Amino acid sequence: MAGQWSGAGATRSRQTGRPAAAALALLTLLTCCVRCAEPTGIKPSNIILILADDQDVELGGMTPMKKTKALIGDAGATFVNAFTVTPLCCPSRSSILTGQYPHNHEVRNNSLSGNCSSSLWQKGPESEAFPIYLNKQKYQTFFAGKYLNQYGKKDGGDVSHVPPGWDQWHALVGNSQYYNYTLSVNGKEEKHGDSYEKDYFTDLITNRSLHFLDDRSPQHPFFLMLSPPAPHSPWTAAPQYQKEFNTVKAPRDGSFDKPGKDKHWLLRQPVNPMPNSSLNFLDDAFRKRWQTLLSVDDMVETLLKKLESIKELNNTYIFYTSDNGYHTGSSLKHRPCSHHSGHLRGQPVCREHGRPVLPPPDGSLSA
């Protein structure tokens, strides 16, 4: 990833540079977190990685997340010119886990036939994913949330498959849901219903991470990867947030509802101009996406308070990012999966308490 930095830890910036994989930059930073303590014998820093699902940047996807911006971005560093390797969930997540581009890990799309959580993936790239190396460094590892789109399916090892390197495993079977889903809990099937108190998935991820922190061994560092469903469809917000942003509409700037007559054939398919029914749908989807993110914002605040209460705040790196971007109304109506910069753009934020997060001398990370 190459790009400009901003935030309390940023000292320089660069406006230009070749966009590479945000995943590779994350792995570089994770490696630093582990290795920087090795010569001194000090316990390595703890790491928390929060991975949202389809959260955009160019449409203001971070706007509703005031707590996250204040607690992580403003207090640490923001990668303002970051790009994912692909605008599709499973290939992008596979790159985050391995540090490899899709042409190397060979996950081509979100299907089993496209190598998403397939047996070939499990025998190959997954067996060399970064949690394995953290585990070898005596990190206590915890995963909760959406893993890969085809994870847990019968043709992909079923729920009994727990990827190597994870001490605690609470993974969603299939794609993002907020209610009525199935989890693999350390290889055992666990079904959930539609009770907000018991089942709302973002809150469940938060609560189980808190239990993990209570039960951890203070003698060893920990790594948490939390992957909430927001703001992916079906855009089901927590009850207390379902009336928020009622006057907000999808942005009308840029390429919104613009004809694609001189563009790629795929961009020429939608009806133009869009009918009112489509515009109303886009506005509703846009509001609901923001509503679901408010629970993720609560997650971040809750985690930081917990770290403070167990006296680990000053020794923990916290990363917040997304697997890819999204768009509403810009040529293809609404979807994450087109190879335009708006759908590849991400804006990871990072904070490490006790030590400033500093960029390299030229202000960028290149992979």
Write up what this structure looks like.
By secondary structure, the protein is of the alpha/beta class. It has a single domain (5-352), classed as Alkaline Phosphatase, subunit A, CATH 3.40.720. It is built from ten helices and 14 strands. The protein has helices spanning 22-35, 66-73, 89-98, 102-105, 119-123, 130-136, 196-199, 201-215, 276-309, 341-344, and strands spanning 5-6, 46-52, 77-79, 82-83, 140-146, 168-172, 182-185, 188-191, 222-227, 316-322, 327-328, 334-335, 345-346, 349-352. The chain has a ten-stranded mixed sheet with strand order 1-3-14-10-2-9-5-6-7-8, sandwiched between helices. Strands 4-13 form a two-stranded antiparallel sheet. It has a two-stranded antiparallel sheet with strand order 11-12. A hairpin with a 2-residue loop joins strand 7 (182-185) and strand 8 (188-191). The chain is globular, with a radius of gyration of 20 Å.
Q: What does the radius of gyration come to? A: 20 Å
- Helix segment tally: 10
Overall mean confidence score, pLDDT: 84
Shape designation = globular
**Count of separate structural domains:** 1
Percent helix: 25-40%
- The first-to-last residue Cα distance is 6 Å
Biggest sheet strand order reads 1-3-14-10-2-9-5-6-7-8
Q: What is the H/E order?
A: EHEHEEHHHHEEEEHHEHEEEHEE
β-strand percent reads 15-25%
Structural class: alpha/beta
CATH architecture: 3-Layer(aba) Sandwich
